[in-house]
Amino acid sequence: MVSDPHAALRGLLTGRLRGHERRLGRFAESDWRRYADLLAGALLVAVRRRFVAGQDRAPVIRFVASARERYDATGRDVDPVLAEALVWAALGERPPVPHDAAAIVARTVLLLGLLEDEGLTDSERDGILTAAPHTPPTPQRQARMGSKGNASVCRVLSPP
Predict the structure, then answer these.
(1) 8 Å CB contact between 84 and 91
(2) What whole-number distance in Å separates Cα of residue 96 and Cα of residue 92?
(3) Which of 48, 94, 126, 129 is the most buried (most CB within 10 A)?
């Protein structure tokens, strides 16, 4: 059986945002932890498809700016420094970023941007979803989200 965190991530990856938001709204604390781990794993896989360790910083900066422009309607929900740190951490060039509400929102925006930019097939999206739970775990698995995290993620995903 597919767990709610897994189904929520599948909804995000396939563009079914209403179902994604509905599932997020029902999350308990343990679901948020699992979802944060799955989201971090999916972002790690997607980042490594697009970027490589040691590359020039400019493409990462441009990508973060582009993703924020497309998915951060307020311009204040995603800290660009945090978003860049998430990309560099996925490439192993920075320490892992803890799972807090700001990181969950930033990971969501970055993942949406990567998926849109890459134009992945259904099979490639499924590959990311399959690989997400098997990525190396971060040492800081602390998803202290609660309803604040849910509101932040839903605000970013809702159309302006």
Answers:
(1) no
(2) 8
(3) 129
**Cα–Cα–Cα angle for 95, 100, 104, rounded to 5 degrees:** 90
Tell me the pLDDT tens digit for each residue of 65-103: 999 999 888 888 899 999 999 999 999 998 888 888 899
* CB < 8 Å & 24+ apart, contacts of 58-61: 60/84, 60/87, 60/88
- Name 16's Cβ contacts closer than 8 Å, sequence gap at least 6: none
Sign of the CA dihedral with 118 first, then 122, 127, and 133 last:
positive
| Residue 24 CB-density burial (10 A; 0-12 exposed, 13-18 middle, 19+ buried) | buried
| Amino acid residing at 40 | A
Tokens of 112: 């949406």
Q: How far is CA 125 from CA 30, 50, 51, 159, in A?
A: 25, 14, 17, 23
Q: Which of 25, 24, 51 is nearest to 38 (CA)?
A: 24
pLDDT digits (tens, 9 = 90+) for 106-142: 999 999 999 889 888 888 888 888 888 776 644 333 3
